[in-house]
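Continuing the batch. This is chain 6 of the set; chains 1 through 5 are on the previous pages. Same settings as before, nothing changed between runs. Recording input and output for traceability.
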Amino acid sequence: MEAKTNDCSLLAVENTNLQAKVQELVVALAAKEQEMASQAEHFKATEEKLIEEAVTGFADGFAEALVQAACANPGINVSKCSPFREVVEGKIVSLTAPED
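Output for chain 6:
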């Protein structure tokens, strides 16, 4: 009976230690989840900044190309030209949204 009592006491101590370890892991997991959420926010902000920079660069480049075209071809009318237009059947028309 004494041996069983000792075994039970050892199991109780092991259980307590395991419960403490579970608590440590729960806290560590919560910290990692918070870190991942913070990184996701940072990545999203960075992505938005890069997209904005790309759009600005594209628009600036397009405007510069129009200036060059007008310089190389004096008298050319580039007023209908826009990065949001395309040539269809020899005419400049608004871009159509792609169908998904």
